[in-house]
Amino acid sequence: MFVPLTPLEFRHRASLLYPRKVGIVDGERRFTYSQFSERVDRLANGLRALGIQKGEVVSFVSYNCHQLLEAYYGVPQIGAILNPINVRMAAGEIEYILNHSECKTLCFHSDFRALIQSMQARVSALRHFVEMEPTQPLLTGHHEYEKILSNTQTQFEGESLSNENDPAELFYTSGTTGNPKGVVLSHRSLYLHALNLLATCQTTDHDVVLHIVPLFHVNGWGTPHTVTAVGGRHVMVRKIVPQTILRLIQEERVTRIFAVPAVFLALLNTPDRGSYDLSSLKLAMIGGAPSPLSLIQAIEEQLG
């Protein structure tokens, strides 16, 4: 019997084994894995109702948030391809990515409305614009994320994945030698990547992971899949503010943080760092740039 490998199974496992456990924390919003699973199904149904077809690209211009985490499962569930875009790229680069990927649907946080509006007419393939957490009336022809979810069924009924080599995610490089280059990740590669991380990092259902690394960066370092697979807790960080990170570590009893050296330096140099209880931390993973031995020693000594 051949069973295709797909990270979609991680969400099913979490909802089956940890339905009442709070799995996602995003500001004041908290979702159990049962609630998260329902929202994923609603998103998949909503995208299908918009007419999104298998193989089409659904892009996100957003901070780390529960909506983007939902998309990690809801978008590939209908056979579409998730494309999280680096919000720190120049407007011209984002426009290039949307055109190059032939993106059909763009979901964006309201903070980026002006950016999206400025390039909307120049992205030829785009059919649907979905705004998250709007603070003003929607632009003409645009949809609201929560209304898409509320207008759909709570259960998803669709064909199961038949080809594990189908594309699931699409990321673009920083374009240091020209325009950004698209990198396609298949269901199979994402599944095996998650298993490798789980074996080496030994993440468990007791872990609470703070999402400092942007989910638009190299598959979020695998955390959207690994943390869900074991029923751990995701804690979202939308903007890098050292005091916010330290507060969340204390309040949510975070056990694992992943970040680039600059973020760790900022945490170490925060004047009131000593007033926060960071005793829950068990693992700090650092990457993205060279890390001097002195920084690693400081992390061990000062963050425990």
- Oligomeric state, counting identical vs distinct chains: single chain
**How are the strands of the largest sheet arranged?**
2-1-11-10-12-13
The Cα radius of gyration reads 19 Å
What's the helical proportion of residues? 25-40%
Give the DSSP E fraction (strand runs of 2 or more residues): 15-25%
- Can you give the mean pLDDT? 96
* Number of contiguous helices: 11
Structural class: alpha/beta
Order of helices and strands: HEEHEHEHEHEEHEEHEHEHEHEH
| Amino- and carboxy-terminal Cα gap | 48 Å
Report on the biggest sheet: 6 strands, mixed
Give a structural overview.
With 304 residues, the chain is α/β, with parallel strands linked by helices. 38% of the residues lie in helices and 19% in strands. A hairpin with a 2-residue loop joins β1 and β2. The radius of gyration is 19 Å and the shape is globular. The model has no long low-confidence stretch (mean pLDDT 96).
Secondary structure blueprint with pairings:
Layout: H1 8-17, E1 22-26, E2 29-32, H2 33-50, E3 57-61, H3 66-77, E4 81-85, H4 91-100, E5 105-109, H5 113-119, E6 128-132, E7 143-144, H6 145-150, E8 167-172, E9 182-186, H7 187-201, E10 208-211, H8 223-229, E11 233-236, H9 242-252, E12 256-259, H10 261-268, E13 283-286, H11 293-302
Helix pairs in contact: 1-2, 1-8, 2-3, 7-8, 10-11
